[in-house]
């Protein structure tokens, strides 16, 4: 009897292992995606996703997603992460460290509780609100990006990291608004919302605390909320108080069709002739510009060098790499995040 039960147990165990193996090896049929951007050479082409990332919205939050860059010369789908890459062009992370469209790393500290223009162009303005603190004896604030304000056409959108005493991964720390009205985005992988005019989409890229914001043919924003960790606090001697974990945003931008005269702390690094003042070989290359890019609020375009005027048409001329007089700088891993191959 015992021998029979043992044989039965082994048979069930082997059957379970076989089923699990089959589930793991089951292949997902690759999706086909179509470029809808009229200004692209890929317009209306039906492209198959790679086997390595067969879907646009993978159920596994750690999996890479299929992405079609309509402005890539190759017109092919590629795999990419759906969260900000703090070491890639267009990134703004940490306290805060930027990587420009030219691929150069620089720091801009700004000032706590003030607002600065990251991007200002004919058809888009993106401002950031900085939070921070200044420990006794320091001459400047430690700062982080707490919120983003996007203005496009007659519309606006805000994305904020909510204040929290203690960090909890099981709590969503994101807050949104569209045209001044609070926007609720249910928690859950791939939960999304699209504006009434289809000119803005917000999609969660994890159950909570990470989203992608898309303004078609203008910009994609990958954003995550993170705290200042105890390790970072000790390493940098931030002296973070016990009642505030300084929840802030890590972001990465992917721009489409910025004009050659684009302005902003980050925007100017995308100009074809921009000479980055960040000093090479310095551990923390600092750049200025507080006086040029300070704005009176998160949704203002009143900085000295701002170009955006509310109400400007989103269908402004799209400037491509060819118009910039550059070579194909989207080759490799950048996928159009910045012109990182300029000499």
Task: Give a description of the structure.
By secondary structure, this protein is an alpha+beta fold. The chain is 11% helix and 28% strand. It contains four helices and 19 strands. The chain has helices spanning 2-25, 230-236, 290-293, 321-324, and strands spanning 32-34, 46-48, 65-68, 77-80, 91-93, 97-99, 105-107, 114-120, 125-133, 142-152, 155-161, 174-178, 181-183, 192-194, 201-204, 210-215, 219-226, 248-255, 294-295. The strands form four sheets. An eight-stranded antiparallel beta sheet has the order 7-6-5-18-17-16-15-14, with no helix packed on it. A hairpin with an 8-residue loop joins β9 (125-133) and β10 (142-152). The longest helix is centred in the N-terminal third of the chain and has 24 residues, at 2-25. It is globular. The termini are far apart. Residues 320-343 have low confidence and may be disordered.
Biggest β-sheet description: 8 strands, antiparallel
For the largest sheet, list the strands in their spatial order: 7-6-5-18-17-16-15-14
Total helical elements? 4
CA gyration radius, whole angstroms: 23 Å
Helical fraction: 10-25%
Global geometry = globular
Structural class: alpha+beta
Taking the alpha carbons of the first and last residues, their distance comes to 79 Å
What is the H-and-E element order?
HEEEEEEEEEEEEEEEEEHEHEH
Overall pLDDT confidence: 85
The number of distinct β-strands equals 19
Strand content: 25-35%
Low-confidence segments, given as residue ranges, are 320-343
